[in-house]
Here is the input.
Amino acid sequence: GTLESGSDGTACLGDGSSSCITFYVSGGQYPNEVQWSLSDGQSGGAGDSVTYGDCSTPYSYDYTDDEASVAPSSSPSVAPSTSPSSTPVFVCSGETMTMTDYYGDGWNGAYWTWSSDDGQSDGGTLESGS
Here is the structure.
């Protein structure tokens, strides 16, 4: 999970299947430069930790035979493109995190981590250089 260098970057936390995620950002050498925000509206800086999603009950899923009988659609809802896109598009089915460094030289040792109730996890940083 190490991301682009410079003043900002984006990361995807999870695949959208987790009901409860814990997210943390460490301090680093210049904690006052480190800021982050999540697509659900939460934001913070170095040393902050948040838990989001439905964390009130332990993770469980009851599979039923009725779910196995669902058939895929015979025709896709979006036609594929025959030519590549000229601009890469960031697609995230989980929570999107935007990282910012106010000085523009990366997070200088600060890092982010997340873990979910269903065993997913990752971590990284905004590297130096700009």
Observations:
- Strands lie at 8-13, 20-25, 34-38, 43-45, 49-53, 95-101, 112-116, 121-124.
